[in-house]
Each structure stands twice: as C-alpha cells, then as structure tokens.
Amino acid sequence: MTSGDRDEITVVLAEDQTMVLEAFAELLGLQPDITVLATATNGPDALTSVTEHDPDVLVTDIEMPGTSGLDVAAELHRRGSRTGVLIVTTFARSGYLRRALNAGVSGYLLKDSPISELADALRKVRAGEKVISKELALAAWDHTDDQLTDRERQLLREVAEGASNRDIARRLHLAEGTVRNYLSTAMAKLHARNRTDAAKIARERGWI
C-alpha cells in the first residue's frame, strides 16, 4: 500500500526501550492495514519523525529522554497537527491521564494490553474516536487535582533527575533563591517533607 491508501493506517512509534520498540514495530507490522513509517527513542526525534512523515497516529510512551510523550502530544496539539496521539505506557495514574487529555491525546493504553487491543485502538484513533483503558477510566474518578504550575513541575522533574538547586538555577537561568522559592511552594502544596519527597509524591500522582 502507499501512504495515500485510504485503508492504510500509518504510524510513528516512540519508545526509549529498544526491545519494546522493536517488538511493537514487528507485531504491528503483521497487521495488514497498519504501516510503521518510523521509530524514535526520545521526544525530540519523535516530534521530528511526525513532522517528516505526517503519520495518522503517533504511538508514544510518556517518559523518554529529552521531551516526554505528553510534551510531544501538547506540541503537536499546539501546531494543529492532524496526527492522533496514542499513549502506551506502564503508568496507570489518573494524573497522567488528565495531563494526556489536556494535551489533546486521542488514546491512552497500558503496555500489558494485548497487541490486538493496540491495533484496534489505532483504527479507532484513525477514525477520530477516543480510546482509554478501562482501568484508567475507573482511576480517573479517584484523583486529586494537580495544583502545580508548569514551572513547579519543571523544577520537580529536575529534582527527580538528581539535580541540585544550583544545577537547576544554572540550567534554567534562574536565581538560586528563586528555585528555592518555587520548590518551597511545591512542597507546601504536596505536604512534602523536603524537595526529594515532593518530587516523589508528584511523580506517584502522575503530575510530573
């Protein structure tokens, strides 16, 4: 089939674990109506591949080097891209789901879903439908609203990666005192003991 074939579903895969990426590509390649155009192992490459290939659907994990799958989805949404985004991840957290929906994603599945469910989800996304795992749909009813600002999330992600306040200040071109103030506010919102605890709580809730 060619990329102009109406019945063909074209896909870009983004996953930082090479073995999982190759398995997805191989299994989806067995579907008669699905063609994997390109693969990527980090967020920036995923965005570049979507721009270059203009697929029907981007299948992406959340946590990847450089830029998260949610950030890629948000950027594609901002650009008005026609490409639907299907998140496939291990994280069954309502916080991630809410962020994904806010970023304009079309679907959210867990990695332990059978490949037939993934293929069916791709067909639905291509048709303009929304697809959410039943486990996540139930979890969405039991959530605490994300009260963090984008800057607080950014700083807590840095903390989760092991960066010191000085490192964060240098990377983000902020005063060290400003970094401390942002983190103190985040700690108060999360009722955390310290900056590391705040990053842990935020990650467990799917807020970063």
TrEMBL record:
Segments traversing the membrane: none
InterPro entries listed in its UniProt record: CheY-like_superfamily, Sig_transdc_resp-reg_C-effctor, Sig_transdc_resp-reg_receiver, Tscrpt_reg_LuxR_C, WalR-like
Q: Which GO terms describe its biological process?
A: phosphorelay signal transduction system; regulation of DNA-templated transcription
Which residue range or ranges hold the HTH luxR-type domain?
141-206
Q: PANTHER family, alphabetically?
A: TRANSCRIPTIONAL REGULATORY PROTEIN DESR, TWO-COMPONENT RESPONSE REGULATOR
Q: Which GO terms describe its molecular function?
A: DNA binding
Q: What is this protein called?
A: Response regulator containing a CheY-like receiver domain and an HTH DNA-binding domain
Pfam families per the UniProt record, alphabetical = GerE, Response_reg
Could you tell me which PROSITE patterns the record lists for this protein? Answer: HTH_LUXR_2, RESPONSE_REGULATORY
Q: Which CDD domains match?
A: LuxR_C_like, REC_DesR-like
Q: Which UniProt keywords apply?
A: DNA-binding, Phosphoprotein
